[in-house]
Structures are given as C-alpha cells and as structure tokens.
Design brief:
The protein is α/β, with parallel strands linked by helices. The chain is about 25% helix and about 20% strand. It has three helices and four strands.
C-alpha cells in the first residue's frame, strides 16, 4: 500500500484524519481531478460526491478507487480505504 490519497479541498476533516494516520494527502479542487485520475500513485481519490459523475471520474482511465464521501465520517472513509485490495 502506498499510503497516499487525494482528497477534494472541501473535505478538510478527511484530510486531517488521514494525515493523523500517517498518510500523505494531496489536495485538489474539482477541475484538477482530471490530472489526478490518471495518476495511479494513490490508494484512493476521495470526492465530496456532488460532482463525481459530472466530472467523469468513473471511467476505465483510472485504476485508482474513487470514494464518494457523502454521508460518511472520516473514519468510515479511512476504513474503506484500508480494506481496499490492490
């Protein structure tokens, strides 16, 4: 596991939680997702949810899992990332 995630800027609590668990966290704004999704150096890309389908990030171009944070706590997201299989 790389212990590196990309987190949408408005998810500050998620960023802080992952950093407290020893993860490297890269922050991105919505339009920057297109630069990140082709980068397979992340364990996961975490988005706020509202723009997930609009940005077209669920495609074959990325093997990196995209997690929609809607309705989830930072710990819920962390648990999902740490259970992903690579």
């Amino acid at each position: 596991m790389r212990r590196k995630v990309a987190v949408e800027r408005n998810l500050q609590n998620v960023r802080q939680y992952f950093e407290s668990q020893g993860y490297k966290v890269d922050i991105f704004d919505g339009p920057q997702i297109h630069n990140i999704k082709g980068n397979n150096n992340y364990d996961a890309i975490i988005v706020a949810g509202g723009n997930k389908d609009f940005l077209g990030i669920q495609d074959a171009e990325s093997k990196t899992p995209v997690i929609d944070a809607t309705g989830m706590t930072a710990q819920d997201i962390y648990n999902r990332v740490t259970k992903l299989e690579f």
